[in-house]
């Protein structure tokens, strides 16, 4: 302590004041008590009026030193209190075992140590790439308690991103932070102004942020930042310890559960091995999907149902198997596992990413993991069998396609073709019809696939030939035209689009198929040219146009098809309807002139024409129909002049 004179010259009043300063320091008195007016003995010394100026200077210096000592002691006491609080906090956190309890204790102790209005803690979500509010103490806003901060957003997002403490005296006016509407509205609703945030660190990794905030603007001191940072360091360790303890506890529980399930697992493994042996033996013996359904239904004691990718049923076994919904199959396909939907276990049958079908199991709501894996293994075996069946079908389709190509091009010996057909279950000695298909509404592969299914069902052939989809099927009727019309309707329903079908035949013997294909192709072309797309017919159904397009002109068949009912009527009753019809057309469709030419009354002509209309149909006088009738009448007349014979057209 500086002095201007030795202690021997110091007055009694000054010594008394120095002693009082030491007493105040010992008592921890407030700073105001160190002012001169508060020192005992000051009044007496003033009355004496004998204090020297040197004594006054000594007392002033001593007072300043005492105040510095007091501040130092206060800081030490506060630091000791903070350290004691931190030690207490560490002890409290060490005793906690539940993660939620640890987080709540951290936030509450931070509020007590810093004396702020609100404290809260956010944890980082690594998957979402943000930090979210986890625990609060003193918060009254629901929106604030649910807020999420993106990395770099707001004060907390910046702390989480940079791993450094940040504080603000008034958040709403602080432009150092990236403000967002969500964060600013939540902070405003909570009424916060001053905010301090420090990172929760585990090594170099930031796991969250610890905050202290007041509802009035103010500045956080470095000591407060250091105190909250120290608490955050303890908190991070406690959080990690609680997490590890929770994981350890869970592991112990799992270990105990595992010891109780070893026997059940062994039994499940035995059942799985048995089922695996059954399924393997089934495949090796050449079993089919029905055998798989039966085997898995027996092992799992439920009803089983197998569908293909189109939803068609392939096999069923057991009692009351219910078909799966499309949503259940889609869910199983997306997850790659069996799913339980509306009381039914469903597993998609997949080959890589391709859906081959589905397998469903009913009657087992309590399917455990082992049985579930067994059920899924059955879907793999089903996929193997379906792939094998498809491979066989593709091979057979290729063989059938090669046979079809050889039939339509005369590329092989007829006897050899007949032998190849017999190996495929076909008898070329029986009548077959040839159909050429065309559609512009659906892709050609879909049309070919539909034709292949029809060929397989009818024991025929289908394939591409000269860019045409060709179908060869056994003929059930002597004429192929009605079969072509029926086939066009069937394909329209399957493909949901019009299909034009040109037909020829029936033919018998391998040598006739090439000509029949050429005729069916001309018929298909004629149908499209006539605007009759989406229909099916043979050349003889196209009238005189079919006669002109045919390789072998069947004039007699054309006359019978066109005039058959009238010719038959005349032959049976001895009438002259055919002669009357010819006269009617020859006189320019005049009833009166026809009557004169026939030497009959006009009413007779009217009656005969009415009878002709009832035989030929009401549309017999349409121009195109009339042209057909006149051509048939001319051919019939020429034949009669030539005299009866093998070519006689009369019915």
What are the defining features of this structure?
21 helices, elongated, 651 residues, alpha+beta, five-stranded antiparallel β-sheet, six-stranded antiparallel β-sheet
Structure description:
By secondary structure, the protein is an alpha+beta fold. It is built from 21 helices and 16 strands. The protein has a 6-stranded antiparallel beta sheet. The protein has a 5-stranded antiparallel beta sheet with strand order 8-7-11-10-9. Strands 13-14-12-15-16 form a 5-stranded mixed beta sheet, sandwiched between helices. A hairpin with a 2-residue loop joins strand 9 and strand 10 (344-351). The N and C termini lie far apart (152 Å). 33% of the residues are buried. The model is unreliable at 1-9, 37-48 and 641-651 (pLDDT under 50).
């Amino acid at each position: 302590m500086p002095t201007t004179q030795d202690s021997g010259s110091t007055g009694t009043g000054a010594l008394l004041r120095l002693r009082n300063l030491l007493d105040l320091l010992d008592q921890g008195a407030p700073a105001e008590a160190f002012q001169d007016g508060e020192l005992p003995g000051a009044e007496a010394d003033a009355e004496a009026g004998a204090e020297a100026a040197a004594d006054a200077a000594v007392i002033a210096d001593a007072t300043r030193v005492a105040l510095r000592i007091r501040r130092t002691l206060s800081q030490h006491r506060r630091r000791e209190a903070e350290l004691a609080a931190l030690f207490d906090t560490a002890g409290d956190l060490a005793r906690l075992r539940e993660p939620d309890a640890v987080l709540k204790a951290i936030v509450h102790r931070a509020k007590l140590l810093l004396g702020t209005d609100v404290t809260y803690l956010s944890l980082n979500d690594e998957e979402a790439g943000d930090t979210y509010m986890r625990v609060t103490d003193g918060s009254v806003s629901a929106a604030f308690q649910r807020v999420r901060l993106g990395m770099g957003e707001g004060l907390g997002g910046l702390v989480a991103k940079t791993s450094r403490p940040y504080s603000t005296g008034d958040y709403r006016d602080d432009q150092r932070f990236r403000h967002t509407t969500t964060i600013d509205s939540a902070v405003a609703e909570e009424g916060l102004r001053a905010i301090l945030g420090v990172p929760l660190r585990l090594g170099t990794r930031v796991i969250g942020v610890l905050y202290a905030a007041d509802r009035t603007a103010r500045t956080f001191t470095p000591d407060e930042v250091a105190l909250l940072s120290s608490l955050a360091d303890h908190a991070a360790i406690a959080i990690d310890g609680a997490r590890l303890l929770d994981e350890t506890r869970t592991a112990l529980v799992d270990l105990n559960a595992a010891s109780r399930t070893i026997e059940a697992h062994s039994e499940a493994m035995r059942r799985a091995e048995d089922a695996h042996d059954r399924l393997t033996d089934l495949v090796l013996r050449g079993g089919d999907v029905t055998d798989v359904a039966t085997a898995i239904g027996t092992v799992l004691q439920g009803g089983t149902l197998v569908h293909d990718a189109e939803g068609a049923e392939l096999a069923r076994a057991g009692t009351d198997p219910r078909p799966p919904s499309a949503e259940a199959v889609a869910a199983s396909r997306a997850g790659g596992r069996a799913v339980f939907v509306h009381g039914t276990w469903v597993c998609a049958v997949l080959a890589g990413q391709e859906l081959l079908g589905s397998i469903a199991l009913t009657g087992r709501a309590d399917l455990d993991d082992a049985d579930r894996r067994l059920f899924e293994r059955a879907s793999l075996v089903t996929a193997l069998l379906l792939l094998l069946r498809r491979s066989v079908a593709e091979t057979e389709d290729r063989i059938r396609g090669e046979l079809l190509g050889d039939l339509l091009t005369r590329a092989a010996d007829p006897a050899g073709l007949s032998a190849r057909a017999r190996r495929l279950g076909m008898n070329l000695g029986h009548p077959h019809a040839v159909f050429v298909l065309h559609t512009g509404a659906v892709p050609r592969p879909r049309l070919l696939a539909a034709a292949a299914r029809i060929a397989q069902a009818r024991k025929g052939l289908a394939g591409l030939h000269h860019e045409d989809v060709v179908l060869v099927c056994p003929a059930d009727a002597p004429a192929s035209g009605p079969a072509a019309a029926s086939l066009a309707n069937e394909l329209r329903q399957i493909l949901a689009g019009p299909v034009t079908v040109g037909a020829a035949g029936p033919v018998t013997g391998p040598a006739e198929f090439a000509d029949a294909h050429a005729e069916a192709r001309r018929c298909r072309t004629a149908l499209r040219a006539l605007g009759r797309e989406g229909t099916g017919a043979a050349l003889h159904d196209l009238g005189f146009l079919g006669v002109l397009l045919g390789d072998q002109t069947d004039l007699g068949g054309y006359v019978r098809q066109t005039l058959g009912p009238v010719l038959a009527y005349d032959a049976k009753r001895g009438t002259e309807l055919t002669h009357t019809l010819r006269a009617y057309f020859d006189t320019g469709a005049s009833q009166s002139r026809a009557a004169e030419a026939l030497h009959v009354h006009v009413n007779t002509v009217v009656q005969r024409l009415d009878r002709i209309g009832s035989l030929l149909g009401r549309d017999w006088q349409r121009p195109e129909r009339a042209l057909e009738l006149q051509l048939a009448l001319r051919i019939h007349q020429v034949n009669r002049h030539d005299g009866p014979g093998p070519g006689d057209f009369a019915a």
